[in-house]
Amino acid sequence: MLNKNYCFCSMFYTVILCLILLLLLLYLGSRKPKGYPPGPRWLPILGCAVEVTRLRQENGYLFKTCSALCKRYGSVVGLKIGTDRIVVLNDYESIKSMLTDEDCDGRPIGPVYETRTFGSRKGLIVVDENLWVEQRRFVLKHLRDFGFGRKSMATIIEEEAQSLVEHFKKLISNELKNRINESKINCNNNDHDDGQIYKLIKKEKVNALTDNPSTNGKQQKVNDLYVNADEYEEVKMMSQSCPTMVIPMHDAFGVTVLNTLWRMMAGKRFNLDDKELTHLQRILTKLLREIDMIGAPFGHFPILRFIAPEMSGYKSFLETHQQLWKFLREELDDHKNTFIPDSPRDLMDVYLTVLNSNNYSKTFSESQLLAICVDLFMAGSETTSKTLGFCFLYLVLFPDVQRKAHEEIDKIIGRSRPPTLEDRTRMTYMNAIVLESLRMFMGRTLNVPHRALRDTKILGHKIPKDTMLIANFNRILMDESWGDPEVFRPERFIDESDNIITPNKYFPFSIGRHRCMGENLARSNIFIITTALLQKFTFSPVAGEKPSSQDFVDGVTAGPKPFRVAISLRT
User: How would you classify the pairing of strands 564-569 and 537-541?
Assistant: First the structure.
């Protein structure tokens, strides 16, 4: 009996002690570190997740939520969401201080950043210290061997831009053929006698219509289409007018942009209508809408991976990455099967050469190569293509900007030859359009998170080790100091002498050691693709539709909401 009472008491006190310890841990977890930046009150376990979620629902977008927190607590805001300490920086001084501080050069850790690359942090974007230094140096060095940053890269970009131009021409040509076929059907449904037959229109001229809607005022002709006098006038007007095609424009650039990088990375390009790639890019786009730069629910609350994998987004995140890994694994296997050690075709071959040697750093591995592919694939498909989406959204909404761009292109390049990167130094207005497009994109986006590698300070605020650090670029690229930040006005980057100028706080590709390694490629892509398309086409709103410049798709990076444009060949 005594032993039973003793066991019961012992168990009782153990339970009580555990509860006390749990309550103590919860209490300590809800206390902010001394000197930590101001921010919402922390609750046990949740931190300030409830308040951030409320503000997110109220403001609609993450960058607006961060700006709302800035107005309430100041330029440096301290948060805790689940297990993650997060500091959001909202002005030029604090952002610059963080981006140029070696103590803040880390990248975030946790389930989100490990799950995306086979269970541990790998690749180029979200790694740090020695792994990042070695792999970044290797990739940059050998990408240059295959054209990155050199004249041959310009050739690749120019070829891909022209491929997109031809794709759009084909769409317009097909639309015109469909209209003519419809007219033919209408004609065949009518009763004709020989006296009604007015004209025979030659079919071989159909393709010429797309490049030259009229020739010296003479009517173009289409074969095997007989029309009476009334019907002839309808076809005549159709062929003399410039045919228009309505296309979705927000995601028209993904394959083109990816090809410019993938040709150097893996020595191949994809067709613009490649169904597998298009499907993969669509599910990636969907995935990147469901998480953001701060993370995902299963990252802030890791236990949710096991008790609520679907609700927390973990299942979708993992399954999407598995499809991407499968796609890239097939590319790698194809390279391994056709690999010739002494004749590297691309970066993937060079990396395989290292792996086949007996002397290489432990940072090199096949999984690291695949992780590099993941990073380059997603970066190539995501950021530049969204910038181009914003660019053409605003070119449609601000037709005077498009008109001025047409005028500069006609003056400097003309219509007979495609644009090249060598034209860039002579085209002030087009360069300004590139700068303004980047401002509109990054002005709705947060930077790739940094992490404090050790205890440090930012503008006097104490930042504990492993705190995630977020720069809200909206507060430096879209604040009121720009005068009219929501207006697409490339002239803000042009001085009185017609030279390009940029303010100190304009750094859409970041600054410091983690400045974007693809900056030159991105700028070149945006310039060439935009110039090539504007040289040949006019982009207009679709009748009855007006895309919004204030509604975005939120996520890892912001993008314009799906919109359509009416595209026609310039006459």
Answer: antiparallel
**Numbered residues of the known binding site for heme:** 516
Residue in the structure block whose two tokens are 């595209």: 567
Determine contact, residues 443/473, Cβ cutoff 8 Å: yes
User: Which residues does the annotation place in the binding site?
Assistant: 516
Q: Which amino acid is at 64?
A: K
Other Cβ atoms closer than 10 A to 100: 12
Q: How confident is the model at residue 571 (pLDDT cuts 50, 70, 90)?
A: confident
Q: Are 506 and 439 in contact (CB under 8 A)?
A: yes
Q: Is 296 helix (H, G, I), strand (E, B) or coil?
A: coil
| Adjacent-strand bridge partners of 86 | 79, 468
How big is the CA angle at 233 (ends 541 and 190), to the nearest 5 degrees?
110
The three-class DSSP label of residue 440 is helix
Does the pLDDT of residue 467 top 90, yes or no? yes
Number of Cβ within 10 Å of residue 159's Cβ equals 15
CB 436 within 8 A of CB 490: yes
Q: Which of 86, 97, 63 minimizes the C-alpha distance to 449?
A: 86
The tokens 């893996």 sit on which residue?
266
Residue linked to tokens 């989406």: 389
What residue ranges in 359-505 does DSSP mark as E strands? Answer: 450-451, 456-458, 461-463, 468-471
For the chain, give the mean pLDDT: 85
Output the pLDDT for position 53. 93
Q: How far is CA 310 from the centre of its chain?
A: 25
Residues whose CB falls within 8 Å of the CB of residue 358, separated by 6 or more in sequence, listed in order: none
C-beta of residue 559 within 8 angstroms of C-beta of residue 254: no
* Angstrom distance (rounded) from CA 156 to CA 161: 9
Reported as type and span, the H/E element at residue 294 is: none
Longest dimension (CA), the chain: 121
Gyration radius (Cα) of the chain, Å? 29
Which two tokens mark 81?
A: 């969401």
User: How far is C-alpha 150 from the geometric centre of its chain's CA atoms?
Assistant: 23
CA distance 25 to 143: 50
What's the helix, strand, coil split of the chain in %, to 5? Answer: 55, 10, 35
259 Cβ partners below 8 Å, 6+ apart? 156, 160, 163, 269, 270
Question: Rounded to the nearest 5°, which phi and psi values hold at 85?
Answer: -85, 130
Percent of the chain past pLDDT 90, that is, above it, reads 60
Quick one: DSSP state of residue 383? H
List 282's β-bridge partners, or say none.
none
The alpha helices in 443-518, defined as continuous H runs, are: 474-477
Rounded to whole angstroms, the Cα distance separating 315 from 192 reads 65
Under a CB-based contact definition with an 8 Å cutoff, are residues 215 and 248 in contact? Answer: no
The label of the residue with tokens 């309808």 reads: 234
Q: Determine the pLDDT at residue 294.
A: 87
* Contact yes or no for 145/351 (Cβ under 8 A): no
Helix (H) or strand (E) holding 360: none
| Rounded alpha-carbon distances, angstroms, from residue 440 to 36, 42, 248, 391 | 32, 34, 20, 8
Give the pair of three-digit tokens for residue 242.
Answer: 């410039």
